[in-house]
């Protein structure tokens, strides 16, 4: 179980801070865990699962295909063929 900070969540998801917090309120984006009065972090596994779940929609648009590929590469340590 690894905890990651907001900056890492933003990098993994390519979402802005405001978008992340809006998704927490309006959809199934993982809730942060409170570490102290002013600090929160997310479970990395929950963020990874959310990324993968977003790529499973029946959307064949190029942007969705790229997002799915990016999620796959993030979760599998990059391109193994380089």
UniProtKB/TrEMBL annotation:
InterPro entries assigned to the protein according to its UniProt record, in alphabetical order: AlpA, Prophage_regulatory_activator
Designated name of the protein: AlpA family phage regulatory protein
């Amino acid at each position: 179980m690894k905890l990651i900070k907001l900056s890492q969540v933003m990098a993994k998801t390519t979402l802005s801070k405001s978008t992340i917090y809006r998704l927490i309120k309006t959809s199934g984006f993982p809730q942060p865990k409170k570490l102290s009065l002013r600090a929160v972090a997310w479970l990395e596994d929950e963020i990874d699962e959310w990324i993968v779940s977003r790529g499973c929609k029946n959307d064949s648009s190029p942007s969705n295909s790229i997002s799915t590929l990016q999620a796959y590469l993030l979760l599998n340590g990059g391109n193994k063929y380089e």
